[in-house]
Protein 1
Amino acid sequence: MFEFSITSRCPDTEARTGILLTPHGPLHTPAFMPVGTQATVKTLSPHELVEMGAECILANTYHLHLRPGSGIIGRLGGLHRFMGWDRAILTDSGGFQVFSLAHLRHIDDEGVRFRSHLDGSEQFFSPERVMRIQEELGADIIMAFDECAPYPCDMDYARKAMERTHQWAERCKEAHSRKDQALFGIVQGAVYPDLRQESAHFMAELGFDGYGIGGLSVGEPKTVMYHVLEETVRALPSDKPRYLMGVGSPEDLFEGIARGIDMFDCVLPTRVARNGALFTRRGRLNIRNARYADDPHPIEEGCTCYTCRHFSRAYLRHLIKADEVLGLRLATIHNLHFLLALVGEIRESIAAGTFSSLRSTFIEQYTPVDEAVRAANRAARAMAFVEGGVRRRSSSRGEAEGT
Amino acid sequence: MFEFSITSRCPDTEARTGILLTPHGPLHTPAFMPVGTQATVKTLSPHELVEMGAECILANTYHLHLRPGSGIIGRLGGLHRFMGWDRAILTDSGGFQVFSLAHLRHIDDEGVRFRSHLDGSEQFFSPERVMRIQEELGADIIMAFDECAPYPCDMDYARKAMERTHQWAERCKEAHSRKDQALFGIVQGAVYPDLRQESAHFMAELGFDGYGIGGLSVGEPKTVMYHVLEETVRALPSDKPRYLMGVGSPEDLFEGIARGIDMFDCVLPTRVARNGALFTRRGRLNIRNARYADDPHPIEEGCTCYTCRHFSRAYLRHLIKADEVLGLRLATIHNLHFLLALVGEIRESIAAGTFSSLRSTFIEQYTPVDEAVRAANRAARAMAFVEGGVRRRSSSRGEAEGT
């Protein structure tokens, strides 16, 4: 179970293709996993996810523990049966949500005591508790409980969070009992390459079925993330899957894969879809723009998704402007299909030895429309960093969907 | 085109089966038409509607005129192409919405000047204008512009509204030019049998492809509606389809069909679905109820809808409680499937001569859970009627979806 075979390697980058076998079918890597926070990938049916080729989805331990409760899901036969999805599922550790979403009460080496963001009820997450919850949920891949350091944070803080994550990883491994569930450790260490390498070595030594890389894309510049990624991957075993948590913009897929990442998840495609931002090879298109009011073309010519095969930009714009649910669905279908098709194309290019040329062609054409906004945000963050002070922030990293 | 053949008759009621041929396929009657106010049946894709056997849907002229505009839809090839639906469509006249939804400015024999409920822009609907808008939309069946009297209203008011509706019907017939569109007249006359008969005779004399019965289920007691229906149908030609506008609860389908009605539309199944009220043979089930939290059964055993084939009450409750769009979809699918399957069963029973026994079995089992609420409403209305005064009110009759 959970055999991971590497099927091809890129000659000039760290990119590779592989197959991870799970009790609910194979996961072809590199893989993008749509996020189904509350046991549903927002707006979609499981059959629509199958149609677009999703092999594994992510569900959030924190949310499902609070509602409807992992006990209920367990008694109903587990997440797969509960949500009618018979392919692979990965549940996260809940760590990120506890720190970013819950009303945090107290953290110590034992665990985290917090209040639910839904009803204020007092809750307690420890490594053992999080393992038990994830066993009740019954995903194919479960994650060790971790403490995710914010950005920016000083090295002393980052080290403490990393060391706690290491202790918790040991306890998670100890508490892990269901052999039909793969357990992934999570590497932390913020933006400090030395810490990241130390963390990767520690996790590799402990030995897991795969390795998550947490705490990235939380506000740091892209160049920093890419550098940290390189240093981290270097220290991880090459025969196990590497999962970059909470990252999944088109450009980050290419950059992550080139640095040896096998798995991604991100709320970005689904969240921006619901706001009318649609992926194309030339960047994001904002369907609310008046220029599309009578545009009879599909979102992107040649796209084979359900939306592009049947509907015009004009119709999609009308639905989104009129707040119609079908608009959210059709936009979500297109964006997820875009990313899943893109990683599929990337897998083929790695096998064919053409990954680097696909990467440069794509990046050249693709212009994230919000680049100016990002630049402004980066400048603001740099200022805050200079002024010092550790603060917590929310971003698309590891974030759950629409909470 | 628009040939209507009656294929069987019930021996002991006015119920009958028939086929209305349209340029976009046959409509088997009695028929229930799901409401797609803004060129989408809320939450559903056209393919899901086909899967549940819908042969004709209704779209709202008023809403589509305001957004995105009938001109845009016309230039894009009409409603069918715009929304990706290649079966029949009926558009209403906009009359009911102008009176119930718009900010009414002025009505005279020429038409109605009003302000859009969306942006306050000044608009003008006349019989000729409404015909032109419906021709741009390009539905298979279009409705004459009418003035819908409220409930309660005195006989003098009802007569004036009816007479204006008659004049407008003449002008609509005159303005009707697209021969690939059937034009239905609308019978008015409030709750007064004499007026209803007069209106039905007038419309029949004028001659239409079918006849709508408007202004019912706007607050009057059910017994009054059923009586008015009998008096109206008696005066209509038997060889043309009769369409009871804005009515479609399970019990009203039986009662309307027994009185000779061939077509229905109603927002009820879709609207209550989004609130978690689900149709079963034993009445409505409120899926938000805590008793369903760990219920592994489908909404209704034996139901063949997509929702019941794949998901439990527990999952559906979770989705609805968590405000997940998939919950709205699955609930809508079930309720529409329930009604479409029910009229299908009714058609079969009429052909088999067993309609009356199906009707009594169904009504005996079916307990609308909100019966107590209805009784209270009826009492309140009766009081208001006694106190006199014509007032406008909104109800599920002819109402558009989620405006």
Note: Residues 384-398 of chain A have pLDDT under 50 and may be disordered.
Protein 2
Amino acid sequence: MLRIVLTFVSVGLLQSYPAQSEWSLAIHGGAGGVPKDLPAAEVQQIKDTLRKALDAGRQILSSGGTSVDAVEKAVRVMEDSGVLNAGRGAVLNHKGFAELDAAIMNGRDHKAGAVAALRHIANPVGLARLVMDRSPHVLMVAEGAEEFALEQGVALVPETYFVTERRRHDLEQEIASEHKSLTQNNLPWHPVGTVGAVALDEKGDLAAATSTGGLTNKHFGRVGDSPLIGAGTYAENGVCAISATGAGEVFIRYTAAADTCARVRYRKESIDSAAKEVIALLKAAGGDGGMIAMDASGHVAMPYSSQTMLRGEVSSRSQAHIVVETVEP
Amino acid sequence: MLRIVLTFVSVGLLQSYPAQSEWSLAIHGGAGGVPKDLPAAEVQQIKDTLRKALDAGRQILSSGGTSVDAVEKAVRVMEDSGVLNAGRGAVLNHKGFAELDAAIMNGRDHKAGAVAALRHIANPVGLARLVMDRSPHVLMVAEGAEEFALEQGVALVPETYFVTERRRHDLEQEIASEHKSLTQNNLPWHPVGTVGAVALDEKGDLAAATSTGGLTNKHFGRVGDSPLIGAGTYAENGVCAISATGAGEVFIRYTAAADTCARVRYRKESIDSAAKEVIALLKAAGGDGGMIAMDASGHVAMPYSSQTMLRGEVSSRSQAHIVVETVEP
């Protein structure tokens, strides 16, 4: 039903705007997929969340809004869902509380904002946006970032806001198997639903945003690739917009997003080829995951080396489409 | 006197090792320079520190040690000096305490460790090394990173350990002019002595390390480019090793280190050309600063857009050489 509505809207847009006013949006709900044993109601919630996130971004882009507003809004919807690894529903660290990372970048002017190791911010991507718009800085972390939030009028929420039964269970399982997971070469990484969005707006501006709770059972204070510009998040007009998901440590060490864009910028590779090659390179280095990557024309590549990746896309040329596949738990 | 000794050692090495066993080390003590009004004794301390850092790294490299050991040691010497913006002597944030960032990267295997927003760690680069060697993570921040330090047997030091009269004075001056400095387009940035090192060892392995207190009067929780892989620090065998210094926010937004290396890797630019072009690009974007950049053969480029940059180099082919220039305060 929802799909039919979206199709109708897309066709309407194709008629209203000339070619140079195309817009495009892609989102991901994380590398990995939906565990086969997840209750049907929760699978439905995940599907509904991806559809709602796409629709929220679509509404902004199709009415002439900016790509940076669209990616922020789409990510906020996913942060609020309670069923993805970002905002409410984020995974828990070794100490049992959520620590949240996010970034947003505007490809028009290379401006960026990012936050990491937050414990009391419901919408990390919103705070990243405030860092970008209202501070001279790019990255703020931990208690200092939350102090900035309060200065900006953002209310804090208790740590319990983020905790779900599912994530408590994930942590217990992970700690039970800790003897084999907390070593250098065996990252305690189970791909679960980092979220992100990339977009092109009618003016031709690219943007990207990513938000995550990181790894289940991560060390207190660990920061992954999501909030790091050029690792998990990057946008540059005329070149690319990227949001990654996966084994964050490997994505950092190989500057995943920056390398993908450098291949497009310097080697004139297509976004499909560049993104695919980088994901293969990361896999060879021991890091499974995926990314959504958009080129200057709004074309989207969504390569992944994990079993699958929760994802969706919609544009002025195509109807909304989501992919939610189940995997062995 | 010291210079003569170093020359002697270098010549000795040239005779002892064949061409494929060349080693090379470069360090920086930050973009900017020594304020003209700095007491002569402190200027001498800065010179002595750079010489001592070079010598410590040289001893490791000339006796067959690794580049990663050499850059860590050189940076530790600078962190301990009390006269550069890293470790003891780091600048103070708006709240009046130091928050320290550092990173280290091994070009042989792309392994990296980084720490940010530390308040009680005397040698941030040493903790970054422990994150790389003894954790499955790359970046740890704030309280969680200090918890990791304690787990690893690293003693904490009081906040007062870092504070010097000079930095207290810098902060007072900065706060007095805050009305004009804390805006998006007017970064409260005075170039003062971030430190870093890059090295090539006899085995052909590159490494890089950077350590800093960041910006005087920065917001509590602000993290700059130094600890971010691909922004202020990066190393990749066969391509480059980079340590940057300057207006960190701009270096992050343009992935300064990753872009420099991408130009070498994909466009086959020389390290001189790549580093120079990136520093020019950052300047055009509003970010003054500099970097030390080493190519696979140990050749060093040291471009800067600031008035000068404190720097030094030594290699199996050349004697130790430092540059410490004064600038208008």
Note: Chain B has one domain: 2-9+21-327.
Protein 3
Amino acid sequence: MSGRPLDVLEANLGDGVAVRLKDGATYTGELGGYDQHLNVVLEPAGGDSEPSAGEDEATETVESTTIIRGDNVVSITP
Amino acid sequence: MSGRPLDVLEANLGDGVAVRLKDGATYTGELGGYDQHLNVVLEPAGGDSEPSAGEDEATETVESTTIIRGDNVVSITP
Amino acid sequence: MSGRPLDVLEANLGDGVAVRLKDGATYTGELGGYDQHLNVVLEPAGGDSEPSAGEDEATETVESTTIIRGDNVVSITP
Amino acid sequence: MSGRPLDVLEANLGDGVAVRLKDGATYTGELGGYDQHLNVVLEPAGGDSEPSAGEDEATETVESTTIIRGDNVVSITP
Amino acid sequence: MSGRPLDVLEANLGDGVAVRLKDGATYTGELGGYDQHLNVVLEPAGGDSEPSAGEDEATETVESTTIIRGDNVVSITP
Amino acid sequence: MSGRPLDVLEANLGDGVAVRLKDGATYTGELGGYDQHLNVVLEPAGGDSEPSAGEDEATETVESTTIIRGDNVVSITP
Amino acid sequence: MSGRPLDVLEANLGDGVAVRLKDGATYTGELGGYDQHLNVVLEPAGGDSEPSAGEDEATETVESTTIIRGDNVVSITP
């Protein structure tokens, strides 16, 4: 067992994650922060982290720090 | 009687579950965690658990730890 | 008078209910549990309970324990 | 002046009401209960109560106790 | 300045108002009550109050006491 | 820096504002009041205030006091 | 790691940001303020700040102070 949702986010701070949104887009980047609403902060990857989710045409790697409001999120894959 | 919704989730930690989303997709995996919003953590199945829900073309077995935000969830079937 | 919504659910624990969802589907089963958000747990009927709502093509009798998130629910008919 | 919304519901417990939903349907029945979210319980009318709202093709008189989740409700007419 | 939204409603209790809903309909009537969610109670006008909003084909004057759930409301015009 | 959203509203009480709604409409008027949900009260302009937002065909200047429920609001421009 | 979402906003007060909305529009301006709902205040840029997000045809630089209600926001890019 991996723990509660926020525990999983805490354990993945600084690691690459893929955030899938309700509009179909997926953002990938380094998990810079989060809060209890699942608002997340993504940062450009440092180069050595690789999100495990498959990248397809609707996936965008963030080029600068990006705050995503939690109510848009479908799933977060560390 | 099986108990309240969160009790049922607690009793199924580590077991295979199928999570049906509002967009029609179903994710299956091992229930790694959850919280009071029905945010859930799915993990790749260890091999010996089998969700009971029928698998069809819109069902995806998670390949890595996946946090699903609760407001997307229609149903969870242990 | 039948009482407040949660009182009606409490009185019907273990009995057959039909849960109609916003997506048009109706799930029937034994009411295994509920909480204040109207999240409900349905279980396969034991054989002697029969929901009173009419069954049509969009009605599905649950084959295993199913947690339904309350915000999908339109109505619950004991 | 008739009072606050919950006061009006309280004053109409046991009386016939029409509940119009966001999906266009209208349910009529006897008001069996309610709570602060405007979740309501409708019961088959005892025979002597008559909701004042006009009945049209999308109006359904409940045939058994029905809990309606408040977030589907547009209006309630005693 | 007219005051906070609930103050404006309080000042208009018993007066004619027009309530515009998200589905495009507008209900007019006498403001019988309200609460902090902007749930409102409309009553048939006593005859001497006249809502100031223009009446068009989608406007309906309530013929009996009507509770409108606040989350349907776009605007209220005393 | 202009301050938090509610501070900006407070500072503009009595001044002309344009309120853009999710349905595409824009209402202009004098800001008569507001609350923490961004419910706002617009009043007919006194004549000397002029909202800065461009007026186009979907813009309506309120002709009487209008309460707008906050969950319809996209933006408010003093 | 960059910190929690509100910390990132706090650190960017007075700097240029791009706010992407659910309706597809993107507003750019100087971050004048924010609150815990991710309601934000944008102000016309002073001239020396430049949001990092790409500007395309759906991007609008605010010409006057603009309050954006948080529930419309998809992402904020400092």
Note: The domain at 5-77 of chain B is CATH 2.30.30.100 (SH3 type barrels.).
Protein 4
Amino acid sequence: MVIVVHGGAGVRRVDKPGDPQLAVLEQALEAGYAQKSALDAVIAAVMVLEDSPLFNAGRGSCFNADGEIEMDASIMDGATLRAGAVAAVTRIRNPVVAARAVMEKTRHVLLAGAGAERFAQVQRLKLEDAEYFRTEARLAALRKNLKDHHGTVGAVALDADGNLAAATSTGGYTGKMPGRVGDSPLIGAGTWADNRSCAVSGTGIGEAFIRAAVGHDVAARMRYLKQPLARAAAAALAQVKALGGDGGLIAVDRRGNVAMPFNSEGMYRAAIDRAGKKRTAIF
Amino acid sequence: MVIVVHGGAGVRRVDKPGDPQLAVLEQALEAGYAQKSALDAVIAAVMVLEDSPLFNAGRGSCFNADGEIEMDASIMDGATLRAGAVAAVTRIRNPVVAARAVMEKTRHVLLAGAGAERFAQVQRLKLEDAEYFRTEARLAALRKNLKDHHGTVGAVALDADGNLAAATSTGGYTGKMPGRVGDSPLIGAGTWADNRSCAVSGTGIGEAFIRAAVGHDVAARMRYLKQPLARAAAAALAQVKALGGDGGLIAVDRRGNVAMPFNSEGMYRAAIDRAGKKRTAIF
């Protein structure tokens, strides 16, 4: 198993990021690594990060301009190109699990808002009240009107059968408009997986990632231009930069190559590569 | 001005389609052709189709499983790669106009549900009650549990300045789950425009269009594989077919070439080409 996780771009040195986040990131990595399939691996990793209040996904999500939390998540299975996603959900404990349920239990790819919540309830997924998701740190960011958008989480994996998968989950960013949907739940933007090329999960200014179709662009550059993963990932991210956006992405290709480029000051990231070697970094 | 409009794939010979739809399609084409910019052209064309009860967008949209209408729309400006979209909106008379407002008046690309409605209200866009959108034909489709998904509308255009634009609008399909969002409001899936390559608007089984990232794939094949528009469009649509989906798309490239492939029985479509020649067809 090759697995890569991110805990979001946008982190700055002045934020004094540190050990607690890295420890959770390692837990997420280990949780994913312990799985057999790439699909189970990305779910397990993202769930750990959603459950932690230190990242901007699930518990600890950013507040929108109304002081409410609306979360987005998606997953894609590179073997079948099946995908699932939820957007603007407020009560689902693990949006990535709901995304997988959309993929596996419906004919649809994306469910938004109240319809997604109702579906999650029917599927007996864990729901929580608003208090569960709320953290003082994110509330302070809203009060101070901070441009707080770091902490989106994601994972990509390649399993022993050669299958790729990707998942992304986020609370968006502080002060976003109610109903705003970013790139994280959008297949081809924040998330992409295709066994013919690579698996990608993005983080950053989501609007620029959508306008550059980042996830699909990395894959298209590999398939059509025969670019190696690192070059394709860097080129896709350069398009984001050209649109005035910053952020980063994690990617793994079908040979197990890993790329983790970013153009922000830092990006929480960790990987276990083909040789079983673990790496963790912020800057 | 080169302009192409579609009124949806999925139409069958047994549906006895005919003159009324074709007449509205021509009105849409003329409304777009009368504009100076590609962006204004696709808006004008799609508005005509949204206002007509004969197409599945705006008035005349399909009902979801709850017997409600939830509409999706998007627009993309090929000159700047700016984009805007709304999803699962219930009261906005012209969702494509709301999509443009998201693009021009917010930092966001996609607004969903109640947040999008509130934004439309603040922007003083025309809202309507449920009765306005409701048609007997779509209600009958819901009652008979028909697999009714035809009638999505869209337009692509190339203006005299060499700018491309694309817009798509839909009510989804009859019996869809509440909250389901298809490819129409998703940039890179149902809609794409980039002056470096082409403008695309799709129609069909939206889930397959998302999983094949159809809009961006047509553009990527042109830019990276140097495929001509017709070949790129056919290849992207073949991916939809490979995923078990059917449908079609309209596209125009920066040289004014037009493609209108579909793998369904029919697709309402009309175009005015570089020579000013008009074509209209269903099968």
Note: The mean pLDDT of chain A is 96.
